[in-house]
Write a structure and sequence with these properties.
24-stranded antiparallel beta barrel, 564 residues, mainly beta, single chain, 3 helices
Length: 564
């Protein structure tokens, strides 16, 4: 089978080479070829002060080459990848090269049929989401068959079966599922001017043989969900509930409880003001196609974090990782625009955003067996909230344009971060981190082709436990950034950036380190090239609540991407 796949992919490459140009029509079929290429490379220098490890290989890199062919309703594609060797922080099991992703799709007005690898999502993703996030080294694509049918306008039915990607192999479990998505206004030809109504239901079934020598494992695990929502010109609201039958696995301590999740979203928007509210409750919803997998390996579902995704470096030092096996969260946000030519809004108006999020434990009661040991089940009421705080973030942002040549942002974040819960690799009894972050961000337009951006960030931090020897990110930080953007002339698309994060408040004097970086980036069309040198602090990198540990590093780095 692997030889067949490689032969088909090679045929696509030959078709590309035979065409007169990358966007040319293929003479034998009238089809078209497109694709993209990305490479990330870095050198590593050991640094005992910042605990950057010694790396035997001087240069490590990874690359991705996508190639797609389209002709009428037929699409074929593949992705070649190499990790030689993976960048630090990316799982070393990716080491190697090959074509782990390929697909063949036929589409018309009635249906889409895909054979090979595919991504997808049912509802919000609480029971199924397959996607790729390269920054995390995350790829849980399904290899198998996927069909979507649109029998009537406003209705879509999806069915799938396959196995998930597990680095260069496939996981043992077989994932089978179906999804129904309905837009009632389109189905019944109703006018959408007043209110849109939508709903859906999903089903996922996992099969993995029971080969456990000690426990009786369910060979089949079923999960289902239902959702409904409404939206109009000014409001939107939706709710989704999911349920997973008992699924003992390595991440939940092999308990036999069922799992459930409830998600509620509501928003209001009008001229000059908007507000949103998000709530969710999750219990025992870590769902994988291998009961012994851990980390981010072979995840079937996805539950986004109900916290703001900060882009400022110091504010993102303490990101939140979703606790799939038990959390209750809330996020509320309000934005308003103070009117132009007012005393508070100024000439151009002022944008203000307030955001609050809080996540904490759920109420669980474990029972004891006759032998004095905890049973493999527990009580968890749907509306029961626990006492332990996992994370809290209160933040405010004020953005204002002062003139045609200057605009600025003032931001403040107050964060409580439970290190014991959110960093499994941390020392026991690390306690909570209490952090305050203040950011002043301004952009000066020097002329029509040049813009200079500057940032000043400060983080005040304290921790309610003793500092441990391995913990290098303690105390206060100061961050400075300067970026020059060239938007016209011969050097249009050039970015020059220098920034320094200084851990001046570390109680260990030798670790009051400057993390200085310099970077040059150039963007032209759909291509971007970046080259830099500097220090990278250790920490946690999160994207949408999925996280990985990033070790400290010191060296040159290169990034390049292009599309054709």
């Amino acid at each position: 089978m692997e030889k067949i796949i490689y032969t088909l992919c090679l045929a696509l490459l030959c078709s590309l080479a035979a065409s007169n140009s990358l966007n040319a029509q293929l003479p034998f079929s009238g089809g078209q070829v497109s694709g993209s290429f990305q490479i990330e490379a870095q050198t590593y220098k050991s640094d005992s002060v910042m605990q950057a490890p010694k790396v035997d290989e001087q240069i490590q890199s990874m690359g991705f080459f996508n190639l797609n062919y389209v002709s009428g309703g037929f699409t074929a594609g593949m992705r070649y990848e190499y990790y030689l060797n993976p960048l630090l922080g990316i799982d070393d099991k990716y080491k190697g090269q090959g074509i782990p992703f390929y697909f063949f799709t036929y589409s018309n007005d009635l249906l889409d049929v895909t054979a090979g690898d595919f991504y997808g999502q049912f509802g919000s993703g609480m029971i199924f989401r397959a996607y790729e996030e390269r920054a995390l080294g995350y790829d849980n694509a399904v290899n198998g068959a996927n069909i979507r049918i649109r029998p009537v306008k406003g209705m879509e039915l999806t069915a799938l079966i396959g196995k998930q990607r597990n680095y260069w192999d496939l996981g043992e479990g077989i994932v089978r599922g179906g999804d129904l998505n309905m837009l009632f206004n389109e189905m019944f030809s109703c006018s959408p001017e007043t209110m849109n109504i939508f709903g859906g239901a999903s089903l996922i079934s996992l099969y993995q043989p029971d080969n456990d020598l000690f426990l009786k494992m369910p060979a089949n695990v079923l999960a289902w969900s239902g959702r409904a929502g409404v939206s109009s010109a000014n409001i939107s609201a939706d709710i989704e509930y999911s349920y997973k039958y008992n699924d003992p696995n390595a991440t939940n301590g092999y308990n036999y409880n069922a799992g459930y999740g409830m998600l509620l979203n509501a928003a209001y928007f009008n001229k000059g003001i908007s507000a949103s509210l998000n709530l969710h409750k999750i219990d025992n919803m870590d769902f994988r196609s291998d009961r012994y997998a851990t980390g981010t390996q072979l995840m079937i579902n996805y539950i986004p974090a109900l916290t703001k995704q900060h882009t400022y470096r110091l504010a993102s030092m303490y990101p939140y990782a979703t606790q799939y096996n038990g959390e209750a969260g809330i996020q509320a946000e309000m934005s308003c625009k103070l009117p132009r030519n007012s005393s508070l809004g100024g000439k151009y108006g002022t944008d203000i955003t307030l955001n609050y999020s809080r996540v904490q434990s759920i109420d669980t009661t474990h029972t004891m067996n006759d032998d004095g040991k905890y049973s493999r089940t527990y009580d968890s009421p749907l509306f029961g909230i626990g006492d332990e705080l996992f994370f809290q973030d209160i933040n405010a942002t004020v953005y204002r344009k002062f003139s045609d040549f200057f605009k600025g942002t003032l931001a403040y974040m107050n964060i409580i971060y439970n290190k014991d819960v959110l960093e499994n690799s941390g020392a026991p009894n690390s306690g909570k981190v209490y952090a305050n972050v203040l950011v002043l961000d301004g952009t000066f337009r020097l002329n029509k082709n040049l813009a200079l951006k500057g940032e000043v960030q400060h983080l005040w931090s304290k921790q309610d436990s003793a500092i441990t020897d391995h913990d290098v990110n303690n105390g206060n930080w100061l961050g400075l950034t300067a970026e020059l953007t060239i938007g016209g002339g011969a050097l249009s698309g050039l970015y020059l950036t220098i920034y320094d994060d200084w851990n001046y408040g570390n109680e260990i004097e030798d670790r009051q380190i400057h993390y200085l970086n310099a970077n040059v980036a150039y963007t032209v069309g759909a291509s971007r090239f970046s080259f830099g040198y500097g220090r990278q602090r250790s920490g946690i990198l999160c994207v949408g609540g999925v996280c990985r540990q990033v070790p400290a590093s010191n060296g040159l780095y290169l990034s390049a991407s292009l599309s054709f």
